[in-house]
Amino acid sequence: MRSFGERAEFLRHCACRAGPTLCWYKLCLALLIFPIVGLAQLNHIEMAARLLSQGQIDQAETEARQALGNPPTRALALAMLGTIRLQEGKYKESTSFLTQALAINPHLVGARTSLGNAYLLQGKPDLARRSFQQAVKLDPGNFNARFELAKVDASLHNYRRSLEVAGPIVAQLSESDDGILLLATDYGSLGEKEALRGLVRNWQQLPAASDETSLEFGNVLAMFGMILEAKQVFEAEEVKIAEHPSPTLALQLGKSYLSLGVMDRAEQNFQCALDLNPACTVCDQGLAEIAERQGNTEKALAYLVTAKQLDPEDPEILFEFGRVCLQRNLLEDALPALEKAVALKPDRDPYVFVLASANVARGNLSKAASLFARLLQKHPHDAVVKYSIGAVNYLQGKYPEAESLLKQSLQAQPDQVAASYYLGLTYDALGEDDRAVAVFRDLLRSHAEHAPSCVKLGSILLRQHHYDEAQEELERAVLLDPGSVQAHYQLGLLFRRLGRTAESDSQFAESRKLEAERSSQTDLKLRLLLPE
């Protein structure tokens, strides 16, 4: 489920859109119980609330300050100023005013709710929860306080407690988009699929849910495996795009469909957003991701080239461009982009890892080892980082160090193909054939499709004169990977030893042909192919 940070925007959206103003009309009415309040002073508070609801913030503050000097209305005036500061985004000042108001009159339910929102928007969910709890205790039937408390419980992953708090107002929540979103998050997180499915019917009966909340609801459904229902929500939004084209809505729909794995719809919406806004680098990135998932890295690269031209300083674009270049063996293009991405975001571990990998591919083993060592300092128990340094040590001929790190990596995460493979290579380089054979046999028992292990095992068995077993492994390697230069070459050696000259010559010829093709691919330069 999402972290507090990922839920913050939803909570911020709800608080800013529906919280303070609605709370204050209820607050003003609730506080008419004051026994000694001058009508003129109270009118200042009511006028401030009315002006605030109309967006006239300066005038609202003027009215609130008119009531500040009168002791009977001082608490209300402070609370109103706190709400004004909350709406202005000045959360610390808001907290100060609201705290002063509650010190004078602890029974101001609306002020406690606004204080909870102020804490929430400062990233203090525990203090926010305490304020909402106190508001609900003072007025158990207060919808706003109960709703806010349920939302903050959900943001803290206390979904059962959130539902319990929301219990008395479930019927009301089921009639609003924000309320359904909260219930959907709770039901989905608790595995209550039927209750979640029931909310789809409530959603369809809403008079006019916003585009933002519709997409959020669809994403929540998708998150909890209700793919068909999520698609129905997204399809309804597509109708809106056809009627009223919106680059923002199209972009968000593209992202949502991509998360579902519905590539054609995702591509259609990203392209729509890009047509409406040609400078949309996020659209280019989305289209690049789709192309890459479809196995067309050349097309993906073309979109990333465009994005990089539009925003050459964006580290995420540079990283994705460099990563795809690395996949296509375009090392001269990959390295500068990845180096710049790391320079811009030195703490992004994936950037550092891929840059190190590019340096391995380029043969800059010392640089790669330094980058991997930097990651190991941050993650001393990470199995993949230990494997990576072990593999670099192997390539540098540091076999004892390679053996130690690769064994540590496999102890932490036993079912690793690459770490086992490089451990086998290390034993082969050390001349410990039996240990190498044992590693490769064990690896192939659990990963029979790993062609490089078949090649190495076959070549060692050939060296040991176990010709029948060697032939079996090498022929399996060719079947698994017809483009393997080494598999054809080793099979050629085997047939030569067996006196099968014609077959040997055929395998050697295929090996030479594949080697020539590989060399031409290595010399490939970046081609700028415009996507169709």
Give a quick rundown of the structure:
The protein has 532 residues and is mainly alpha-helical.
Write the layout of secondary structure elements.
Layout: H1 4-18, H2 20-30, H3 39-53, H4 57-66, H5 71-88, H6 91-104, H7 109-121, H8 125-138, H9 143-155, H10 159-166, H11 170-173, H12 177-189, H13 193-204, H14 211-223, H15 227-243, H16 247-260, H17 263-276, H18 281-293, H19 297-310, H20 315-327, H21 331-344, H22 349-362, H23 365-378, H24 383-395, H25 399-412, H26 417-429, H27 433-446, H28 451-463, H29 467-480, H30 485-497, H31 501-522
Helix pairs in contact: 1-2, 1-9, 2-3, 2-5, 2-7, 3-4, 3-5, 4-5, 5-6, 5-7, 6-7, 7-8, 7-9, 8-9, 9-10, 9-12, 10-12, 12-13, 12-14, 14-15, 14-16, 15-16, 16-17, 16-18, 17-18, 18-19, 19-20, 20-21, 20-22, 21-22, 22-23, 23-24, 24-25, 24-26, 25-26, 26-27, 27-28, 28-29, 28-30, 29-30, ...
- Poorly predicted ranges (pLDDT <50, ≥5 residues)? 1-40, 522-532
Overall residue-averaged pLDDT value? 88
Estimated structural class: mainly alpha
Q: Shape, please?
A: elongated
- End-to-end distance: 37 Å
CATH structural fold name of the largest domain: Serine Threonine Protein Phosphatase 5, Tetratricopeptide repeat
> How large is the share of residues in beta strands?
under 5%
Q: Which CATH class of the largest domain?
A: Mainly Alpha
User: For the record, what is the CATH homologous superfamily label of the largest domain?
Assistant: Tetratricopeptide repeat domain
Main pleated sheet: none
Oligomer: single chain
